[in-house]
Amino acid sequence: xxxxxxxxxxxxxxxxxxxxxxxxxxxxxxxxxxxxxxxxxxxxxxxxxxxxxxxxxxxxxxxxxxxxxxxxxxxxxxxxxxxxxxxxxxxxxxxxxxxxxxxxxxxxxxxxxxxxxxxxxxxxxxxxxxxxxxxxxxxxxxxxxxxxxxxxxxxxxxxxxxxxxxxxxxxxxxxxxxxxxxxxxxxxxxxxxxxxxxxxxxxxxxxxxxxxxxxxxxxxxxxxxxxxxxxxxxxxxxxxxxxxxxxxxxxxxxxxxxxxxxxxxxxxxxxxxxxxxxxxxxxxxxxxxxxxxxxxxxxxxxxxxxxxxxxxxxxxxxxxxxxxxxxxxxxxxxxxxxxx
Length: 340
Fold this sequence. Notes:
CATH superfamily of the largest domain: Integrin alpha, N-terminal
CATH topology of the largest domain: Methylamine Dehydrogenase, Chain H
Distance between the termini: 64 Å
Order of helices and strands: EEEEEEEEEEEEEEEEEEEHEEEE
CATH class of the largest domain: Mainly Beta
Structural class: mainly beta
């Protein structure tokens, strides 16, 4: 990530402990290293100022105030195996001289066991205002029901960061545990707003991965299903996106799942999808569809012909894909109408 002194790297020392008092022992430390032409050099160590089971459980960096320097965002919480602690998230503002060891902004969870800050992700400009947003997950929050989880979205701003989210979302299905992983998707549907991949652990640890679209009003709550795992596969534990792996001009998506056919050790597999594999587009037309024919035009492009009746008239519509040089091309439609 970027600081005034050049690129920087932050890493968590998970085994670090410090006895603050007879009743308090801090766990975890974040080491920040600066990079320049001569290599990587230690810059600063950071330790927690708020409650939590592991300072540095999650790390993220992005320019939330659009000043040209990345802020370092540090999550301090427990794990699924040990989730009873309080949680907090601490922000360290970037500057020309790097990071101060004192947090500039903090968020705390006043309820134990919710895993606030288990994942933190900078997700791009979702609403087109020129500032990058970030999402903090709380997978054991029970606002929507037992174990549903909650997503907290904070919009970028050149003002002081807020103490409350600009948007939040809790599913209604028990044990969804939304927010296993969050990853920026870039602008998948090319509407000018960045989009987000969000995975959920689910009750049987099957895993579920969805795409949530950005818009002028922010992130949409309804996700588009990308993949769903079987019991124990934990699909989407790790997700990476917004890159063109195969150079075809379309963004690619990589997600992990546990391969249950490799015995009790659950070998790890990764699945890569191109945007071609899962992208869909909807075409609204009036009336009820009565017949659909799928074909290929003479130049090799896909065409679709269907009949639909809106009660007053019968229509025959032809949709044909046109390669116009853009990654997704465009669809052109022609409609013949027979009036009743």
